[in-house]
């Protein structure tokens, strides 16, 4: 684990002498200033606090930072860190307030605030920005996943008899190999599991146990990849598929087979649809066919039509066709736009959305950055001589970067959220109401330890309010 003193940007180390010398407190906030989506799902702070903030600063950390920063060419706040070690036993004297994780709020609202609790550490709320602002990543993944959930949910509600039961397993995380680190896979993968329960990212399961008290955050099924199919050779493609039935085709079971290693349509129509059709039916399991190349909309539509012709369908209570014995999972070229397009096409063709699941990789965990939702962490007030003063920026060259000012909180009035001014004692809204930002961390101690089940419950409540 990185030395906590060094878990910041280089220029932050010189800021302790840049504030007015009589400054006793600094107040900072986090917001999404807009972006691709108009609402954000707040998630991941608890994991960051447990991972990056829970270990106290030690004498060894201070000595290491002093030497490194000296050679790096920037100042070192030796007095400040020595005082922190003596007075606070190495624990950071800050209070963090935040939304309950799993809350969905409109953009342009405060989601988290930070203030120092010891007047000798007014430089600290800004110093921890680098570590805390990394929350943009799990929030953005959770937000993308949540908005995809709404796309799939709408299609299921429109076409399926039991939409809520099926929804949790309709978007599967395929993203572990496409991210920059195991840590990203863990935190991003877990952010997806706030909304769904399907994943192949084992790091996310471990993170759920470690950070959110969840024994099993998600589930998977046996599935083939191209190497396990093509190792049999093209001449033995039928045997490769038959092996999957033999190994995993148990009553009530489900298994997935990538089927485009050579000729997808021939495999669906003739191998699955003729040569192995009865074996699939007799197994009592559900075969999930995975196309893995070509235009997603066209390929899924034709695959589904071929499977319907060979295995038959039933008509559900809403008048849509449900495949017998088989399903489809699309994992190539999957993103929010293609998911919507695929669902529009197959439902227009008369098929229920329950016939398909999606595997999303790079577009879920990697094709995003801090600007996707325009995240910012800014100071908005300082206390000098016992009085609070507004702090803000208002660039003439870019009004989009105008920051908020003053002591801030968040109130909820029915379905509406408002960032409001709060007092400097209890951080209570000046015009009444309850500050929805609750204390979650104070002076090195976690005050709230939510389970993933609690987070998911808040997501469900937000969905019912949509």
TrEMBL record:
Top-rank taxon: Bacteria
InterPro entries: Aldolase_TIM (IPR013785), DUF5598 (IPR041529), N/Namide_PRibTrfase (IPR041525), Nicotinamide_PRibTrfase (IPR016471), Nicotinate_pribotase-like_C (IPR036068)
GO biological process, one term: NAD+ biosynthetic process
Residues holding diphosphate: 177, 226, 290
EC number(s) on file: 2.4.2.12
Amino acids binding beta-nicotinamide D-ribonucleotide: 200, 290-292, 331-332, 362, 370
Key words, A-Z: Glycosyltransferase, Pyridine nucleotide biosynthesis, Transferase
Pathway(s) served: Cofactor biosynthesis; NAD(+) biosynthesis; nicotinamide D-ribonucleotide from 5-phospho-alpha-D-ribose 1-diphosphate and nicotinamide: step 1/1
A Pfam family of this chain: NAPRTase
Domain Nicotinate/nicotinamide phosphoribosyltransferase: 169-409
Recorded catalytic activity of this chain's protein: beta-nicotinamide D-ribonucleotide + diphosphate = 5-phospho-alpha-D-ribose 1-diphosphate + nicotinamide + H(+)
Domain Nicotinamide phosphoribosyltransferase N-terminal: 5-96
UniProt-listed Gene3D superfamilies: Aldolase class I
Enzyme type, top EC level: transferase
One example GO MF annotation: nicotinamide phosphoribosyltransferase activity
Family, as annotated: Belongs to the NAPRTase family.
Record-given protein name: Nicotinamide phosphoribosyltransferase
Protein's organism: Sphingomonas oleivorans
Organism lineage: Bacteria, Pseudomonadati, Pseudomonadota, Alphaproteobacteria, Sphingomonadales
């Amino acid at each position: 684990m990185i030395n906590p003193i060094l878990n910041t940007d280089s220029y932050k180390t010189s800021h302790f002498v840049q504030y007015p010398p009589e400054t006793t407190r600094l107040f900072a906030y986090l917001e999404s200033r807009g972006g691709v989506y108009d609402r954000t799902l707040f998630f991941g702070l608890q994991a960051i606090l447990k991972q990056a903030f829970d270990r106290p600063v030690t004498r060894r950390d201070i000595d290491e930072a002093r030497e490194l920063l000296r050679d790096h060419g920037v100042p070192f706040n030796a007095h400040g860190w020595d005082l922190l070690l003596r007075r606070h036993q190495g624990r950071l004297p800050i209070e963090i307030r935040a939304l309950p994780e799993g809350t969905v709020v409109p953009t342009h609202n405060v989601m988290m605030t930070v203030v120092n609790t010891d007047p000798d550490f007014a430089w600290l709320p800004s110093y921890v920005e680098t570590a805390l602002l990394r929350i943009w990543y799990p929030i953005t993944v959770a937000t993308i996943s949540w908005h995809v959930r709404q796309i799939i949910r709408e299609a299921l509600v429109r076409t399926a008899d039991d939409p809520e039961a099926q929804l949790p397993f309709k978007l599967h995380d395929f993203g572990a190999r496409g991210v920059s680190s195991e840590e990203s896979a863990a935190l991003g993968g877990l952010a997806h599991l706030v909304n769904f329960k399907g994943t192949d990212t084992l790091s996310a399961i471990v993170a759920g146990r470690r950070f959110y008290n969840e024994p099993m955050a998600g589930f998977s099924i046996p599935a083939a990849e191209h190497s396990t199919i093509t190792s049999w050779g093209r001449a033995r493609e039928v045997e490769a598929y038959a092996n999957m039935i033999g190994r995993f085709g148990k009553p009530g079971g489900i298994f997935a087979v990538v089927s485009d290693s050579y000729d997808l349509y021939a495999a669906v129509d003739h191998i699955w649809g003729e040569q192995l059709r009865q074996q699939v039916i007799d197994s009592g399991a559900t075969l999930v066919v995975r196309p893995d190349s070509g235009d997603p909309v066209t390929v899924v539509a034709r695959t589904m039509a071929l499977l319907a012709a060979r295995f038959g369908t039933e008509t559900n209570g809403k008048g849509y066709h449900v495949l017998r014995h088989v399903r489809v999972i699309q994992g190539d070229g999957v993103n929010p736009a293609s998911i919507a397009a695929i669902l529009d096409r197959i439902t227009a063709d008369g098929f229920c959305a329950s016939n398909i699941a999606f595997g999303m990789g790079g577009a879920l965990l990697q094709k995003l950055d801090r600007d996707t939702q325009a995240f910012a962490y800014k100071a908005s007030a300082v206390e000098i001589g016992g009085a609070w003063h507004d702090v803000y920026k208002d660039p003439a060259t870019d009004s989009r970067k105008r920051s908020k000012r003053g002591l801030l909180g968040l109130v909820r009035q029915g379905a509406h959220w408002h960032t409001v001014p709060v007092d400097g004692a209890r951080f209570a809204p000046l015009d009444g109401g309850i500050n929805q930002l609750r204390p979650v961390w104070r002076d090195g101690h976690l005050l709230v330890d939510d389970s993933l089940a609690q987070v998911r419950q808040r997501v469900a409540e937000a969905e019912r309010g949509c």
